[in-house]
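Workshop exercise sheet. Pairs work together: one partner reads the sequence aloud, the other fills in the structure field after running the prediction. Swap roles for the next sheet.
Pair: D.N. / O.F.
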Amino acid sequence: RYLNIVSDDLCRQPPQGLSAWSLTHKALTFWTVSYTREASADAIQWLEQALALEPGNAMAHVVLGFVLNQRVVNSFAEDPPEENRRALAEVEAALRLAPRDATVMEYASLVWLNCGMRQKSLQTARRVVGIAPFNMIAWGYLGCGLAWGGTDDERAEGIAILQRLLKVAPNHPSVPFWHYFLSFAHTEAGDYRTAREHAQFAINIHPGFSLGWVQLANALGALGEIDAAGHAIAQAQQANPRFRPDGYRRYVLAIAHEVGMESVRRQTDGLVRAGLVPPLSEASAA
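Structure field:
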């Protein structure tokens, strides 16, 4: 509760007169709490102000990269390839400034995962939890990366990590995202019933999280609950009017070179069965 009070107070502070550190944390907190296109635009503005004040602030660079990449993942970006290119450049700038900073590496690992660099992401996340074993956010990113397109053993390790996080930190702000990662992991295993349960947990806690609704829709479609899948997509679009199921599949396809085409099929098969996206042809896969 103390964290929520501090976060709310920081979000309410006007940016004028804030230090680079305060602007960076204001941007990150506001994005995490609000999770909207408008929040991402405000966060980027504050991070750019932070870098104007302090160009060598590694944290501002990496958080800017993180928010830019999240705009792409969540269908908020006007020009996804360009925003991802800029995100990767900001991450590299941060690592040049602070190559052994655990928090910088933590955010870098997620950006790399979302840009299709799974092995680089996993190596970095493992370094972070070795340096900072109580960094629960980094553990969550490691769990997600292990479960996404990995071997059976990697997926089992990822699921175990995420379940442990939920057990030891049931009130952590990342709980809805850990459930989302678990839904993704169980979808990879073809266990759509458990995937549905975790996706439902994610959107119950964070109803504005459009990707949670997509994960739920995919699980429902795979289970033959066609009308419910359509309703879930409608909820995703209510949370984010720019969201389109075919755009989600393009995002998954764009980073399939390391996670593999079977992962793309599993993560969208329920959407296909529900008639929300057309079947994945070999031509579109290429």
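Discussion prompt: Confidence is low (pLDDT under 50) at residues 1-13. What would you look at next?
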